[in-house]
Amino acid sequence: RAKDAGKNTYQFYSEQMNIHSLQQLALESSLRSSIERDELRLFYQPIVDAKQGRVVAMEALLRWQHPDMGLIGPMQFIPIAEDSGLIVPIGEWVLQTACAQGRQWHDQGMDVALTVNLSPRQLMDPDIVETVARALKETGFSSESLTLEITEDLMMSNPEETVETIEELRQLGIKFALDDFGTGYSSLSYLKRFPIDTLKIDRSFLQGVPNDIDDSAITAAIVAMGKSLRLNVIAEGVETTEQCDFLLKQGCRHMQGYAFAKPMPADEVSPFLDGAKDSFDVLAGVSAS
Ligand code: C2E
Ligand code: MG
Ligand code: MG
Ligand code: MG
């Protein structure tokens, strides 16, 4: 009996696995043609200075407008893109599209700095420096207005080469941010070794702020450490006025999260920037103690 039950469980599990891998395979093959079918989209989410009440940059976030499944978020297909190597052409599309958009906003009188996420596989790609340089050159977007967001796990796998690549890209005038800070390993030693400008506190820490004393203590400590290392610190996932207040009290004024805006399609950015100043003044007003 127990054996039967075990067997059934196993079969069930294994069928699930097969369905899962079939879905992955189907997704991979349609992802392969997503660029030529023009199904990829970039959304933009503001990074704000909550003290001054202004937008400091917009982060480009990838979406896939799938013909049957609708709009799919990056968590559902970036891993597939990573495993299959498709992340390299997709990442190039992201860079080109973001820079072209940034140039267009610039020409319309909006100097919007942009941040673009780079996955580990992309930064290890031997052509990455050329790819980024080409995106800047072809679009005419200023390298000074571009920040690349990378994660800690990336640095673990191949530290020496990664530092070299980052240095080469920095020579183009590009800045670097360490994304999801606090979730990887050996965070502190990497902060010292890697030539980055900005640290983004992972939103999992913000969730407990200000009620959870541990989350609040960790957040405060990361802000203090970032500041003493002369890094720009951004808190991700700020959803409430209380979180905003807490961060301002710690001296962290750069924030990103639903409290300010969700990621939006490109055509909503210009009206958003027009209306942004007033709405942030309200938040900053509430927070000034
Ligand atoms: P990330 O770079 O850490 O981006 C922040 C994620 O948190 C975004 O999810 C954003 O929509 C979400 N978020 C922002 N504010 C809040 C908030 O207040 N509350 C909550 N609950 N969530 C918030 P999204 O767009 O689904 O992106 C997920 C991840 O996918 C990104 O995390 C990034 O690692 C990756 N990603 C996105 N676009 C790209 C891309 O173009 N290339 C690569 N390689 N990775 C990308
Ligand atoms: Mg990011
Ligand atoms: Mg993040
Ligand atoms: Mg993340």
TrEMBL record:
This is EAL domain-containing protein. Residues 24-277 form the EAL domain. It comes from the Bacteria. Belongs to the glycosyl hydrolase 13 family. The chain holds residues 473 to 761 of 761 of the full protein.
